[in-house]
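name: query_chain
kind: protein
chains: 1
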Amino acid sequence: MPNFTPGALKTAVVQIPVSPAGLSCQAVLFLGPDASTVAATSGEVAFVSTGNQQQISLLVVMPANIGTYHVYLGIYSEGALLTGFAGSEDVVIMSQGELLTVTDLTVNPATINVGQPVTIKASYINNNSFTLTGPFDFPIDSPVLESPVFWDYTTGLEVAPGESQELIREFTPQKAGIYTIRAGALSVPLEVTAFLPSGTATVNAYAPRLGQNWIVRASVYNTGEIPYTYRCVFSFADQTKEAAVTVNPGNQPPFGFTNSPPVTFAVPSQPGTYVIKLDLYVGDLLLYSYSGTYILK
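structure:
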């Protein structure tokens, strides 16, 4: 069963026996859900019968709508139908994404809280004889969504015949529920819970020194129910730095912290009073703020 994409221009080559020779004829090929509904057509292609089997080429722009279509061919002469044929195979119009063969699909982590990102990874190959060009519409659906959303569009991405590629994208759900991530024929579930994230943090660093680089970390405590990826936003001396760290639940003060990756500040050379500020986020939700003051001489 041939698979094509919407709007693709294809040539159908048919063998037509018409006799007697010398008739002025027209061949019309069309696609449709039934013999009375035309979804795409070649229009009339004129030819003169030879009395024997002859080959006619007909150009057809594939239908715009995804679906399965029957193939019909009519042979006319002077407006009268001489004969008609129904194709032995249907034509299937598929999206670019459906034409890709997806070999692997993962979502990590598989359980998250509202507002947390997940990483979606899909491996695929183009097993067709033609190049596929994005966008590839890989959907995410859920009873909590009014309509499916698409985790990948990849506009302009080209995949040559036989070529394998890997897509990695992030998705951040805003409602609790069970989601289904789809790519090609594969699908994986994603559970989104409604636990409210919580956590605290302090600055973990030696005292800064004038005119030197200062390495700073955040010690993060997860006081919530599930693992969270925290955004640690530092501000010091008109500089802003950010680091992310994933912390498991049960890391309670004062000893159960997890350190963020380090950030580096340039400490001014002028003596004075300087404030380090740390804002702790999950997604865009501010959970906690900390500040410390240093008097540098």
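note: The longest helix spans residues 96-99.
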